[in-house]
Design goal:
Helices cover 49% and strands 2% of the residues. It has a two-stranded antiparallel ribbon. InterPro entries: DUF5806 (IPR043829).
Length: 251
């Protein structure tokens, strides 16, 4: 996988000073992006939370206390102030020393999501309880949980990033399925698309610390290929029925 540039070392800082994750201009390439349903526009894709709602500090159902002001880092937490499950969380440990802008650039070159959306979506999945997602805990401990995030987030900012991730996945799914069904790609081209997509997805999982065996990788690829063949076949049958119906109408 390293031959394609998919290695965690590419996120390490080099001798050139990079702009910090908390700077509004740290990710200028994303400045023109506006995500429907995502209202934190001030630093939407630079890893820093929204500042537009600075006057609107709120609470969530998981903690009945005021959240941190967006964009203002909390004082350095004491070790005993950090919840035990946060201290033990090791999902992104492989990215110690990574810089936000490098992670973001990698993701934006290969996916629709930003670094903050990727990280927060994973955290929302890992910190889900029977009553909901622990957004206050995620936001207040974000720098402890994800090495390349340096600011705390309000529960609102966490929820906004999660919603943006979900919306982008849905739109990307619809785009991909349309491309597969509209007969734009040949079967071989579609296989290439699936292979490239699978490689990126596997790399992200590996960075998160998910160890996939060769058997699991092959099984996942076989399932995906099987589903896509069924999609193509169903699409072809649908077009054939529509063509036959049009010919019948003309007669």
């Amino acid at each position: 996988m390293d031959e394609d540039g998919l290695d965690a070392a590419r996120f390490e800082p080099d001798d050139d000073a990079a702009e910090s994750e908390s700077s509004p201009d740290a990710d200028g390439a994303d400045a023109d992006e506006t995500d429907p349903g995502e209202t934190d526009t001030a630093n939407a894709d630079d890893g820093a939370p929204d500042t537009a709602d600075a006057a609107d500090t709120a609470t969530d159902s998981d903690a009945g206390e005021n959240a941190s002001m967006p964009g203002v880092p909390d004082p350095e937490p004491q070790e005993n102030d950090i919840p035990e499950d946060v201290r033990k969380y090791a999902r992104f440990k492989k990215m110690d020393g990574a810089q936000y802008d490098r992670v973001n650039e990698f993701l934006r070159d290969r996916t629709y999501v930003t670094a903050r959306e990727w990280a927060i979506a994973r955290l929302c999945s890992d910190f889900r309880t029977e009553t909901g997602v622990e957004m206050t805990k995620i936001g207040e401990n974000l720098p402890e949980l994800v090495p390349f995030m340096t600011d705390t987030y309000t529960p609102q900012a966490v929820n906004q990033a999660r919603a943006s991730f979900e919306e982008k996945v849905r739109k990307a799914g619809a785009t991909f399925l349309y491309g597969a069904m509209c007969d734009f790609f040949t079967a071989e081209e579609l296989d290439d698309v699936m292979y490239e997509s699978t490689e990126v997805a596997k790399f992200l999982l590996e960075v998160e610390g998910v160890d996939l065996s060769v058997e699991e990788e092959l099984e996942a690829e076989d399932r995906i290929s099987s589903v896509m063949r069924e999609v193509r076949e169903a699409s072809s049958q649908l077009r054939e029925r529509e063509d036959a119906a049009e010919e019948g109408d003309e007669e």
